[in-house]
Design a protein that fits this description.
Layout (H helix, E strand, L loop, with lengths): L2 H12 L3 H23 L10 H13 L9 H26 L10 H7 L4 H17 L1 H12 L4 H8 L3 H20 L8
C-alpha cells in the first residue's frame, strides 16, 4: 500500500470510519512490527514482550484514541513509536516493582539507548529524563522520540513535527547534550 493510501486511511479513521480501522491494520502491520523489533533489539534474552505483543499493545492504544487528527503516515509511526516506548516503560516499571532494591544508574544517553530493557533502572532513568526534557523543551523531546524510538531521519522528523530540518538538527544536538547531562550528571559528553 502506498504512503498516500495509508494517509487517506488515517484521515478516514480520524473521521470515525470503522472500515478504515479494519483496512489500516494490514496496511501498517509490517512496518509496526519492524519498529517493534528495533525497539526490542537490545532487550534482555527471554524478554516477555515479543515484537508481536508490543505491536498489539501499542496498536490498541493508538486505535482507542479518537481525537487524534492524523496528518499522515509519518505522524502515525512517530506516535506509534511513542506508544511502544510507553508500553516498554510500563512493563519495566512493573518488573521493577516486582524486584527488590536497586538504585538509579548514572549513564549516558548512548548507553541508555543501547541498554533499553537490559537494565530496567536505565530504561526508567531515560524515560524520566525524557519527561523532564519535555518540560524544558517539548519539541526537542519529540525529536528524540521520532529519531530514536521511531527510527525517523531528519527530513521525516521535520515533516512530522512541521518544522525545518535545520531546527530538527538543532533540537537533536540540544536534546543529546541535555539528556547526557541529566543521565550522567555532566561527567561525560554524549557524542553521535
Amino acid at each position: 500500500m502506498t504512503h498516500t493510501n495509508v494517509t487517506q486511511l488515517l484521515r478516514e479513521f480520524s473521521a470515525g470510519s470503522e472500515d478504515a480501522v479494519e483496512a489500516l491494520v494490514p496496511a501498517v502491520y509490517d512496518e509496526l512490527r519492524d519498529l517493534a523489533q528495533r525497539q526490542l533489539r537490545n532487550e534482555r534474552a527471554g524478554h516477555t514482550l515479543t515484537p508481536t505483543a508490543l505491536v498489539h499493545e501499542a496498536y490498541m492504544k493508538l486505535v482507542n484514541v479518537r481525537e487524534v487528527d492524523w496528518q499522515d503516515r509519518a505522524h502515525f509511526f512517530a506516535t506509534a513509536a511513542r506508544q511502544m516506548r510507553r508500553v516498554l516503560i510500563d512493563h519495566a516499571r512493573t518488573r521493577k516493582r516486582d524486584k527488590r532494591g536497586g538504585g538509579q544508574a548514572h549513564l549516558t544517553l548512548d548507553e541508555a539507548l543501547r541498554a533499553t530493557g537490559a537494565d530496567i533502572d536505565e530504561l526508567i532513568a531515560l524515560d524520566e529524563a525524557l519527561t523532564r526534557l519535555a518540560e524544558v523543551d517539548e519539541r526537542a523531546c519529540r525529536v528524540v522520540e521520532c529519531r530514536t524510538f521511531g527510527g525517523l531521519d531528519v527530513q521525516e522528523t521535520a515533516h512530522v513535527l512541521d518544522t525545518s530540518p535545520t531546527t530538527v538538527k538543532r533540537d537533536w544536538a540540544f536534546a543529546r547534550a541535555w539528556l547526557n547531562r541529566e543521565l550522567r550528571a555532566g561527567d561525560t559528553e554524549f557524542g553521535g
